[in-house]
Write a structure and sequence with these properties.
Elements: H1 13-39, H2 49-73, H3 77-84, H4 87-109, H5 117-140, H6 145-167, H7 177-185, H8 187-200, H9 205-225, H10 228-238
Helix pairs in contact: 1-2, 1-6, 2-3, 2-4, 4-5, 5-6, 5-9, 5-10, 6-7, 6-8, 6-9
């Protein structure tokens, strides 16, 4: 919901409230997944600095996104503008730190065992860049609230993947854990599409463009990941690291669940 300029006209109050609720729900769903992992002892603070930097930046984005939604819903346009300027800095930094932590995870352990390494490396990275592209597009069209809010919702839905993926029973979804974890994030834009249709009798084109790009990038990322180039790149990235010791395909570690 970040913006740096006041829109030329006010959006309907109900519309503003809907996007605030969706923002808060997506942020809560993302945080819940990480808190669940921490409570179950699956996460540890004993990680390199790149992981902590990644966590701080991404949690900062959640706070910024929620604050922007609340500020505009409460009519505090001045605060909305001030907070919005940070988005132009935070989004590119997220893409850099997100890439760095994915490389670290792939090389340190081959990524989560319930995902194929090539899926985790290539499809995950392309999803991150899709978020960045849609978020920056949303910022560029900030004067057009209809486009701005919906593109930002689609962008933010991509970031719910890591949180929701920690809630799903991913080991029991092998070998489809990765596509399922991505498909679940589409629930939020689908809710937005349904809300548009119910309220206005039509769906705003921003959803068709946003979701078209989102789904298209995912499909392309999977095609690349499972191509000879995708396999070769993944093997090159983890070569000579502990991540190269695990199978390329998703698997259950010996003794899992015992």
């Amino acid at each position: 919901m970040a913006t740096v300029a006041a829109p030329p006209r006010a959006a309907p109050k109900g519309d503003t409230r809907f996007f605030m609720i969706m923002a808060l729900v997506m942020c809560a769903a993302t945080v819940s997944g990480f808190l669940l992992n921490l409570a179950l002892g699956r996460s540890s603070f004993a990680e390199p600095a790149v992981v902590h930097a990644h966590g701080i930046i991404f949690m900062s984005w959640l706070g910024l996104y929620a604050a922007q939604a609340i500020s505009i819903a409460s009519g505090n346009v001045a605060l909305h503008r001030q907070l919005g300027r940070a988005a132009y800095v935070v989004v590119p930094v997220m893409m850099v730190t997100g890439t760095a932590v994915m490389v670290h995870s792939a090389q340190a352990r081959g990524g989560p065992f319930f995902f194929a390494v090539n899926e985790f490396v290539i499809s995950n990275a392309m999803g991150l860049y899709c978020f960045g592209g849609l978020a920056l597009w949303a910022l560029r069209v900030r004067r057009h609230q209809g486009w701005h809010r919906r593109l930002m919702l689609v962008a933010m839905s991509i970031l719910t993947g890591p949180g929701l993926g920690r809630i799903l029973p991913a080991p029991f979804l092998i070998p489809y854990a990765w596509p399922i974890s991505i498909a679940v994030t589409w629930i939020f834009p689908l809710i937005g599409i349904f809300a548009d249709w119910r309220r206005n009798g039509r769906v705003h084109p921003a959803y068709w463009w946003g979701m078209g790009i989102n789904v298209g990038v995912f499909a392309a990322s999977m095609a690349i990941a499972y191509s000879p180039v995708g396999y070769a790149f993944t093997e090159w990235l983890v070569a000579g690291t502990p991540g190269a010791a695990r199978p390329m395909a998703p698997f259950l570690p010996p003794g899992f669940g015992g």
